[in-house]
Specification:
By secondary structure, this protein is mainly beta. Helix content is 6%, strand content 52%. 25% of the residues are buried. The N terminus is likely disordered.
Length: 575
């Protein structure tokens, strides 16, 4: 075949056409002339030549640290290196020091990070060995996996304080209403919880309206349970409360006050213990009204059917203190018993200090008690090996108390605390007393056996020991009456106090046991003995609950007895 110079034969042309894509271009290519005759006016499309590539820039992405959602943030992305296969879209995020601080990285442990500031991008894999970055462009999700040793705070849910939000201005109003209209008596109860939020300040009010009509007697009353303003003190991880509130219950019994309180806030810690409230149980003979009082205030009122009942949605006004329960039966009879409640032993982590400072006037809803000015300070310190030391003092013109105690995490055996309190008191008759009180508390959950010791405790007090609440009484002995009267015009007795019968021994128990497919059994109760009398405040309840083929059943028994009021209730129930 004769081939002229500068010309190709048909075979050569076919061969060149077949090999042209491989010979001319090694990768896919988009001709910008398709978009414009002026190629210079077309944006740089080289990022998309490889396929599944995205342009660098700022993207709003969801941040995940070690599979935990941190938040949503604008992040600057740059072109990734060819060797970086852990990112999507050919992009690499610009990790700054501020982002690492938000992730909880211990900056001080890495010398290369200490000198970094501003928006400088940090080569994370080089600075923190073992870290991995993964970016899902389709989901706009950026995963940062960091080794645990690099973290400053490993608690789940940790958020740096600089990321906290004080919220928006708001007005709040919560209400709860219950009532009953009968042929002989009417009863209504309205509880209002209102508030205003502005900046870091929170203004709150808790009040209740009660109306009763019985045997021709009417009672209409509005009670201001409390009004207070509060705000957070972030540098101290504390709360400041001004107005009506209650002291803490870690060292001393919780009491109401009107004044100021500065205390460590558990809510500012990611794994902090949440508030505890007891389950109030009882047995109603008939459809009945259940009224629960704390510090003289009605904090709960509801109606129950005949049989055993359990109130689990209680919101006490303080974190501890006896709950006075009244079950008003349809036939006019009443049951009264007291449910003591205080938190389980509060152990602190190693190195943490928890404080509580209170200055103000003693405050209760009982008109038979005075309002002495007092100060209180407590301190709890977490030590090594699971130990916790705590102590505090209460000071008033007629009362002085000092307490010291220790707690220990026993591991598989639960948690225990033991404390000692010494007090000097001057009572309403100006008599002076001095005594001591020893308290033991234990908590344990045996999950493997389905057993839960919510609270098991005992307190022993010598004959001369009194509390600040005792000193506040204006008289040595007296009855506290309710609003309603019986058919003879005698007012109902709500409670009774006698300072010559000061507290001696107090036992508390709250145990539940799961039986698997065979139901569960529980025992709850308390017993308070006194110096000077053989009578005791007693409340116990035993119960069993189960189910079979869609039918639930329960058997319960209760025993109630109150000192000074008289009468004992022993009730059995099957539902």
């Amino acid at each position: 075949m004769h081939i002229q110079r500068g010309r190709y034969g048909p075979v050569a042309l076919a061969l060149m056409a077949a090999l042209w894509p491989q010979m001319g271009w090694s990768e896919s290519y988009f001709n910008p002339a398709f978009l414009s005759d002026d190629a210079a006016s077309v944006a740089d499309l080289s990022h998309f030549e490889k396929g599944h590539q995205q342009a660098p820039g700022i993207y709003r992405v969801d941040l995940w640290r070690n599979d935990e959602f941190i938040g949503t943030q604008d992040v600057r992305f740059e072109t990734a290196e060819e060797s970086n296969s852990s990112v999507s879209g050919g992009l690499s995020p610009c990790i700054t020091r501020a982002m690492l601080e938000r992730f909880g990285v211990n900056i001080a442990a890495f010398p290369d990070l200490i000198q970094v500031s501003g928006e400088t991008c940090i080569p994370l894999a080089t600075v923190i060995p073992g870290s991995v970055i993964a970016f899902n462009f389709a989901a706009l999700r950026l995963d940062i996996n960091l080794p645990q040793v690099a973290m400053q705070n490993s608690a789940r849910g940790y958020i740096p304080p600089e990321q906290w939000d004080e919220g928006i201005p708001a007005a709040l109003l919560n209400y709860s209403f219950s009532g009953n209209r009968g042929s002989d008596d009417d009863s209504y109860y309205l509880n209002l919880q209102s508030g205003l939020n502005y900046g870091a300040w929170r203004l709150r009010n808790n009040g209740a309206w009660r109306y009763t009509s019985s045997n021709g007697e009417r009672h209409n009353e509005w009670q201001n349970i409390g009004t207070w303003a509060e705000r957070t003190v972030i540098p101290l991880k504390s709360e400041l409360v001004l107005g009506d509130s209650n002291t803490g219950s870690d060292v001393f019994d919780s009491v109401g006050f009107r004044g100021g309180r500065l205390y460590s806030s558990d809510n500012m810690y990611p794994d902090s213990m949440q508030g505890y409230a007891p389950t109030v149980r009882g047995i109603a003979r008939t459809p009945a009204k259940v009224v629960i009082r704390q510090n003289g205030y009605v904090i709960y009122q509801s109606y129950v059917q005949a049989g055993a009942f359990a109130i689990t949605d209680l919101n006490p006004t303080s974190s501890s203190g006896d709950l006075d329960v009244t079950v008003e039966e349809k036939d006019g009879s009443q049951q009264r018993y007291s449910v003591p409640y205080s938190t389980v032993p509060l152990l602190q982590r190693e190195g943490r200090l928890k404080y509580d400072l209170v200055v103000g006037d003693y405050r209760s809803g009982n008109s038979n008690q005075d309002t002495p000015f007092f100060t209180q300070g407590t301190l709890i310190a977490g030590l090594t090996d699971g130990y916790t030391l705590y102590g505090g003092t209460q000071l008033a013109s007629r009362y002085t108390a000092m307490a010291v105690g220790a707690g220990k995490n026993l591991g598989d055996w639960g948690a225990v605390s033991l404390d000692f309190t010494h007090a000097r008191s001057q009572l309403a008759d100006d008599s002076r007393h001095e005594g001591q009180s020893l308290r033991f508390l234990y908590a344990k959950s045996l999950n493997g056996f389905g057993t839960n010791f919510q609270l098991l405790g005992y307190r022993y007090s010598t004959k001369g020991f009194y509390t600040l609440d005792d000193v506040a009484w204006r008289t040595m002995e007296g009855y506290q009456y309710g609003d309603s009267k019986d058919e003879n015009g005698v007012p109902d007795v709500q409670s009774y106090h006698n300072l010559t019968w000061n507290k001696k021994g107090r036992f508390q128990v709250n145990i539940s046991q799961s039986l698997g497919d065979y139901g569960s059994v529980y025992v709850s109760g308390s017993e308070q003995t006194y110096w000077g009398t053989s009578d005791s405040n007693i409340w116990y309840q035993l119960g069993y609950a189960g189910g079979m083929k869609g039918v639930s059943y329960s058997v319960s028994w209760s025993w109630n007895q109150a000192v000074g009021i008289g009468g004992t209730d022993k009730i059995a129930s099957f539902n």
